[in-house]
Amino acid sequence: MVESNRDDVRRGRRGQAHCYRRRLVHYSAFTDATHITLSTNFAAGTASGLSYAIYRGWNDKYQDFGASSLADAADYRDADTYEDWVVMGSGFNVAIYNVTDNSFNATSAFTLPSNFKVVSVRSGRTGILIGSTLGSRSVLTLWDAQSVRSIAPWIWLKGSIQCIKPYLGNWIVITDREILLTNGYTVENLPDIPDSVIESVLYFVLPQGAEVIGNRLIIANSLGSLNRLRAGLWILDLTTKLWEFVPVASGATFRVNMRAVFADSMFRIHVAWQTQLDSQYHLGYLNNSLPSRAELILAPVGQGNNQKTAIGAHPTLAVSSLFSASLPITVNVAVKVYNFKRNLWNTAQQKVIATDYNKITVDGTTSSVNNAEVGDEGDGLRRGQRRASRAHHGYRRSRHISRSLDTRHEFSGIYRIGRFDFRYTVQAAEEDPDFQRDSVTRLVL
Question: How would DSSP label each residue in 203-256?
Fold first, then answer.
């Protein structure tokens, strides 16, 4: 590479000042200081007597895992630190790098059978937990970075390991079928996300696609087409064992590939995702602020053999202690009742690209995903839009909805349907006599 010190003058845009820069060119042959062959012509014009500097290129490999260390380009090389080691998954091996003496062992520090695949490694109080897959099964292996083999019996799991996160000296393990808490010797199950079905795939999470913040487990899950299972951030309160769902910034909950979750030192939780419809990658962050809308689905009430009719509801509301600012308080509450006369949740699929804002065309020939009926409430999985179906007609079931959407539904889009009877709505502000800032509030609907 040759660097000429001739100033290359280029006119700035919109009358701005001229800018000057040095020009770098590559040479293809060097005979002596006066006979240099450039790879391309010197575009700045001709001149003589110019000084130059010659830089020599090089390739540098700090450490080498070896050729074909990963059997598949889609495999991951998850890594973590343990004492003075950097521990990395590498195919069916665990590679280690020592930050004290710069020693590196890529193939023989810890090995598994050649048909295994290391997915995730995480350090903890009792050692390094290694999660690897073998076909449709997985195994957890505890290691101390010193022993030749594992320091505890292997723990076999059903499903494929997705991610491992440390939690209070233990580990939370996410497979595609369940969530587990383990100390490397024993395991116990944590609650699955709502509407989970036995022996079904519930989670698709990258090795860096989860984070534990305090007592909350945040999972960036890409699966979301079965009942209430939607792509986005699922948050499990490890104390109450209750779930929350947070969609991505656009509100899309279908055809969303969730990526990494990362909490920085400034308490900001960064999130990455890809939307398939427009093939765009996004970076955002999880904001702990008041949402524009939230849902709460209660357990069944009034169970028994006699007929019941809902006539009212008494929600008890209180001001959150997480916010110190004195803000105006206005509450809009809508209560909907499910009568258990058919499935609470189901799904329907868009047949063609929508041409109207008040119509969703579903495929009447595909019964497995199109069980909607007049009066069902549809939750658009693209932007979380909710509308009620009021009529349908034709072979393809063109469903007219109660209120127009702000965007047209895309081809093959999935939307969730539910049989709720809309009953009550109420608005309350802090000046209302029943709404007291310093006490629990009871609203009668």
Answer: ----TTSEEEETTEEEEEE----STT--SEEEEEETTT--EEEE--TT---SSE
Both 98 and 16 in a single domain?
A: no
Residues 126-182 pLDDT 10s = 999 999 999 889 999 999 999 989 999 999 998 899 999 999 999 999 999 999 999
* Full residue range of the structural domain in which residue 17 is found: 2-54
Angle of CA points 364, 401, 233, to nearest 5°: 85
DSSP string for 274-295? EETTTTEEEEEEE--S--S---
DSSP state of 149: S
Q: With bands split at pLDDT 50, 70 and 90, how would you rate the model's confidence at 307?
A: confident
Instruction: At 18, give phi and psi (nearest 5°).
Output: -65, 150
Domain count within the chain: 4
Nearest residue to 220 (alpha-carbon basis) of 255, 183, 272: 272
The residues, ordered by sequence, that sit 6+ positions from 349 with a Cβ below 8 Å of its Cβ are 362, 363, 366, 369, 370, 412, 413, 414, 415
Q: Report pLDDT digits (tens) over 272-301.
A: 999 887 788 999 999 877 667 777 777 777
Question: Do 188 and 334 have their domain in common?
Answer: no
Q: In a 3-state reduction of DSSP, which class is residue 15? A: helix
The verdict on 30 and 89 lying in the same domain is: no
* Cα 120 from Cα 88, distance rounded (Å): 9
Query: Token match 């427009």: residue?
Result: 278
Counting DSSP H helices and E strands in the chain, the numbers are: 0, 34
Tell me the C-alpha distance between 83 and 75, whole Å: 26
The verdict on 90 and 170 lying in the same domain is yes
The pLDDT value given to residue 180: 96
Which of 169, 264, 187, 261 shows the shortest CA–CA distance to 219? Answer: 261
Alpha carbon distance 320, 285 (integer Å): 22
